[in-house]
Amino acid sequence: MREPVPEKTFIGIPASDGIAIGPAFCYIPAELTIPVCAAGTVDEEMTRFDMACKRARVELQSLYEAIEKRAGKEEASIFEAHQEMLSDPALEGKVRAEVEIGETVEQALVKATKELASLLAGMDNELFAARALDVKDVGHRILRILLGLPDTALSAVTETSIIIAEDLTPSDTASLDPKLTLGFITAQGGLTSHSAILARTLGLPAIVGMGAGLLEKVPSGTSIILDGRTGEMIFAPGGETIARYKQIKAKRESHLLSLKAAVEKDAHTANGRRVEVTANVGEAASARDAMEHGAEGIGLLRTEFLYLEDTQPPSEEKQYHIYREIFAVMSGRPVIVRTLDIGGDKPPSYFPFPNEMNPFLGWRAIRISLDEPELFKTQLRAILRAAVGHHARIMFPMVSDLDELRRAREIVEVVKRGLEVASVEFAGDVPVGIMVETPAAAVLVDVLAEASDFFSLGTNDLTQYTMAVDRGNAKVSGLFQPLHPAVLRLIRQTIDAGHAKGKWVGMCGELAGMTKAIPILLGFGLDEFSMNPRAIPEAKYLIGKLTDEKARDIAGQAMSFGTAAEIETYMKGVLALL
Amino acid sequence: MAEATIQVKHKIGLHARPASLFVQTANKFSSKIKVRNLTAKVDFVDAKSIIMVLTLGVMKDHEVLIQTDGVDADTALGALTSLIKNNFGET
What ranges do the domains of chain B cover? Predict the structure, then answer.
């Protein structure tokens, strides 16, 4: 009887979520051997080079089209870049130089590719250095064609397997047969390597950076488990381990199905109360991303990017077009536009900022807008004009006083009158509200309700100002606790006071997207949760599992604790049982 | 011969799409076009070569020097600087 191989676990970099169980297939790309023969004339050799490049272009175009269909334009664009490298004058120049001293075009190509790839590989920046693999990939493709060999990269895989390789080029990853590939593990590569990115887009579990010697450790045909969540590869797993992972895998897959179902529907609690789940967004591209993740609107549109990217403030027209584009992407869903929220910690280049001892307690956000009414009016005009036919709202940041709010609203009215006089079309009924992010505003919600159509809690600043702690200061950042009872009390008070005045209360701070906080906030009666788009599916799913009554119980229990740590421990227990 | 110094503001620098657009634009002209990274002190390379442009390692806020030489030198320089100035057509 043979000794059973002992189970062993290896750890690499988790690159793409998911679990795969199956036999390993070691992929060793065939070394292309160049036959030794005399070179033809320079013209003959270079003609062969041109012909091979033409052929490579055709192959790359069909790869581009195949990947575009499977994963989209962005993922496919790498093969556009490869086509550009084919016509790179530096590559052609180096090949020609070698051919001119008597090398065959094959030898010349190998030298040229190696030289150019090593220029890139030696760069400090990982993103640039990673492009060396693309140069090698392109060089390999041309050489293969020159040698008259077919594109067989991974066609030797004939049964469903987990691919094990030293590294996978974009061409390799693209030619993986999705029906036969359970996942892949590579010895090299990092999280930003093309194969890792493509694996995530295709939903293929993957581990990269397993380290040298991977292929010797795992011969083809060995049974392995790939855990893309942790980066663990289990070699020759025992029956018990396999059963355990099969269970995790099944549970995960059914959870993914529930998440997918949750994304497609508007969020409701288990007893049917409608709760809005929306996205925090900073540019048009992420609005599209938000829609894909199931956002029911934008709960916070940051507009700072418009002001920080240029050497002058953005014109009304520029802003108008960008807001319109974002409103159009959201197609009728509500969008809350937060007016300019900058401060001395990150000043735009064109704006003279006073030297402040403490920019977070200084001249920022609405305080700037009130002092620089022209800058403010330009933005308000652009928003009001863009809002025609859309469901937009305006929100002021950092309000801490009723007088500030009254003055800001008065400026909105002045802008509206100006647009009317000039006969410019605008939306007259855009609701105007404030962010509740200073303790002053949280305490004064009943008073501020006089001039605010809605409220949205900004928990990052609210936590910072309540706890009097700078989260960027490592010495004290441990006190930055959004689940601190003091912060939670202010949140509950804000929601209660807003509701007592008949106002809608949402939240656009990080807390709104944290699963450990959602049951408590739901129990407080929060109307809207606005978060990073990626957190939306899980949040919608969680809300759908809770009744309001259950959420109120959880919130009540959580509020009985005296420290954030106790609340966190309690919530961990609650989530484990859900 | 014409030349200009300009700062690249794009968040990924001269990499991926911006690098492609830069090289594609350079290839529209017959002039010889060279570019160097002043910030990282990398010497001139052929602006029509995608691989060589990548070796400049131009990241956000780096300054590049572009030199054009030929019949359409001024137009080429104008096209390349406005491409960078307009942030490669992204807002």
Answer: 2-89
